[in-house]
Amino acid sequence: MLGLTFVSFLSLNISPAMTSVAHAQQPLYIAYPPKNHQTTADQIFLIGTAAPQGDVTINGQKIQRSNQGHFAPSFPLKLGVNRFVLRHKNQTIDLTVTRNSTIPIIPQGGGFADNSLSPNQPISVLPNTPICFGAIASPNAQVSVTIADKTIPLLPRDKSVELPANYSILTDSNEPVINSFTKYQGCTKFNQFGKLGTPNFQLKINNKTIAQKGEGSVNILNPNQLKIS
Q1: Which domains can be identified in the chain, with CATH numbers?
Q2: Fewest Cβ atoms nearer than 10 Å: which of 32, 48, 97, 221?
Q3: InterPro entries, per this entry (predicted)?
Q4: Region 136-163: what's the mean pLDDT?
């Protein structure tokens, strides 16, 4: 009975103190983002907590926290790797966040964006069927495609404007983004039969010419030789 009374007394009298000590010794903790996080967003929230005593800094910058020690500041992200160093007293956490691009990247000095030429796979159509060729390339360029000794100009489509993401209202970055690339397209018809080969794309900008071979070949079917299974 004495042992039970002692245990009960210890529990009732030490639990509040232990709770206070645990709160004071709460380690620096990051709930979001996870390690080696990748995103396409241009902003990110660093959500975490630490003991209320002392300051928390991120890359040397003191951040605001709640009375309980919680924090959720927002930081801009550049394309590529972004490093954040969080410190609280003698604790340090290193975070790496990689921002990936969602828009085509134009080579420096001008050119075609990777994997932007179309068609990008072999196509077979009947004679006089419209065939459209497309490319994403530098703005204000002269773009054309040549196939079967025929040159088709690719004209710029309407300049596209990206609307801001839904989270932008939280980060005060709700201005539309004007893309630094242009989509070009041109269509034509062929009345001859046979394999026309692979198109060759050409771009002229700033007194230089850039050529690139397409990936999708074009085949014009002979309607008299179609096999019906």
Answers
A1: 27-99 (2.60.40.10), 123-222 (2.60.40.10)
A2: 32
A3: Ig-like_fold
A4: 86
